[in-house]
Amino acid sequence: MAVSSTSALPETADTPIAAAAATRPARAPRRPRGEGQWALGHREPLNPNERTKKDDNPLNVRARIENIYAHRGFASIDPADLRGRFRWWGLYTQRKAGIDGGRTAVLEPHELEDEHFMLRVRIDGGQLSLEQLRTIADISTRYARDTADITDRQNIQLHWIRVEDVPEIWRRLEAVGLETTEACGDCPRIVLGSPVAGVAETERIDPTPAIDEIVARYVGDPAYSNLPRKFKSSISWLADTPYEVNDIAFLGVDHPEHGPGFDLWVGGGLSTNPMLAQRLGVWVPLAEVPDVWEGVVSIFRDYGYRRLRHRARLKFLVADWGVEKFREVLEKEYLGRTLLDGPAPDLPEKPIDHIGVQPQRDGRFYVGAAPVVGRVSGTQLTALADVVAAHGSDRVRLTPYQKLLVLDIAEERTESLVTALRGIGLEARPSVWRRSTMACTGIEFCKLAIVETKARGEELVARLEERLRDFDADLSIHINGCPNACARTQTADIGLKGQIVVGPDGRQVEGFQVHLGGGLGMAQGQTAGFGRKLRGLKTTAEELPEYVERVARRYLAGRQEGE
Ligand code: SF4
């Protein structure tokens, strides 16, 4: 490259450039732009999302839905409510059918959306009574065209919801203690919990009271309904939730002097900048979990970055501050006391999914069963409720792996339950493929999607069951319709991120970027961590089954003793 004679000159006081600079008036130092942190005085909204939240607390949209929109219909909805505040009540417009993924990024929101909604029902801790299960099933068949998906955050999502039906749906849900409050939006989302909380043989404390208290105190509280972005929580004795990718996680640990309590982690999250949560090194007794949770969410509200949406998760603040400063601010500014130092928890060698027949501590058993990629229906959930009742139980749990458990079964009835579940499409002895494959919502309903996911996942599981029936290793496959990683792309053995790729004939087709070798829910330093995105490692959606089969066969051929 040619270099001009002036640019090659050193800028000493002897050069003409330096001499000219010396005579120029000094510029005032540039003020740092700031990240929009409220605690540092940045209270004016710096982007449209912040403006929407400031103009009107999103929780207030419920009254407009009940009093105006449900009566006047979809066309009457204010766009700022429709595409902003509705989310605080679990409502997203769903994608218009027939729009291919290549057009997702170029169309305006109103061109992408259908006049129906996805409605997310929050099920904190994944705990459902029989009555609640029947209510969701009934709403699905009555108002949601028989759709229902178990999400990897223990929610159930319904589709095809009309705004006219929303108040009646809320009435039915709330009559049985369920809600959609803050199921989506920049607020405290569902709290993940162990699907075997209260019944696990090895659990030392059931954290359900802390989950219930957090939901009762803070969910729907306007003081915490305008966060920089979503805030994800996990509270569990066992490491059977993906705690490392939550904004806050409490994980059970025995303190040598104080007994059982919880180890606190902060700053995890996936999407395009994945980060694992970090330990603050503190031990929190059960009774203090809600207060400490409030302290952490308050730090996020006050110090979280609000200028840019893609930097507005807690993980960026934790990464910038470091855990020492984060702990100091939590203790000094928010709790007014010092937290006790605590030991690191023991972590399992592989993720725990609770599938199959397993003992409870009271002598009864639970049965974990797998739908395919979390997809069920209202009809199926009604049948499940009948099966559960017929086997003497009234408790069901959803897992963060898109699976479900039936609790409290007498030993002599477990085989009958396994058979009955199989009869309604829920398999308690699934193939590794069915057991370990998850898929996000994808192009069928999601406006951000680039590719189809659920149907592809069902097809993939069927093909692999046919071709690799006796595959005897654990191999997780997470299928995602775009980079947002709702089905945790980076945490699977094979993580798939939907994108448009070039097919064999040169045409642009649906495909996936592949991440290999991720894993969570187990000891750090063994195999936990994010999968590696391998440059150029892509597959078309059509070739996906062959691709996974090749990876699986190569793995079998090359695995080492005990792997
Ligand atoms: Fe939608 Fe993308 Fe999330 Fe899938 S990963 S549900 S396509 S936003």
From TrEMBL:
Domain Nitrite/Sulfite reductase ferredoxin-like: 110-176, 359-422
Annotated keywords: 4Fe-4S, Heme, Iron, Iron-sulfur, Metal-binding, Oxidoreductase, Thioether bond
Calcium found in the keyword field: no
Major enzyme class: oxidoreductase
Keyword Iron-sulfur part of the UniProt annotation: yes
Cofactor: [4Fe-4S] cluster
Catalyzed reactions per annotation: hydrogen sulfide + 6 oxidized [2Fe-2S]-[ferredoxin] + 3 H2O = sulfite + 6 reduced [2Fe-2S]-[ferredoxin] + 7 H(+)
Composition-biased stretches (Basic and acidic residues): 41-57
One Pfam family per UniProt: NIR_SIR
EC number: 1.8.7.1
Biased composition (Low complexity): 10-26
GO molecular function: 4 iron, 4 sulfur cluster binding; heme binding; metal ion binding; sulfite reductase (ferredoxin) activity
Segments for region (Disordered): 1-58
Residue span(s) of domain Nitrite/sulphite reductase 4Fe-4S: 184-336, 435-563
PANTHER family hit by this protein: FERREDOXIN--NITRITE REDUCTASE, CHLOROPLASTIC
Record function comment: Catalyzes the reduction of sulfite to sulfide, a step in the biosynthesis of sulfur-containing amino acids and cofactors.
Stated family: Belongs to the nitrite and sulfite reductase 4Fe-4S domain family.
Protein name: assimilatory sulfite reductase (ferredoxin)
Originating organism: Micromonospora pisi
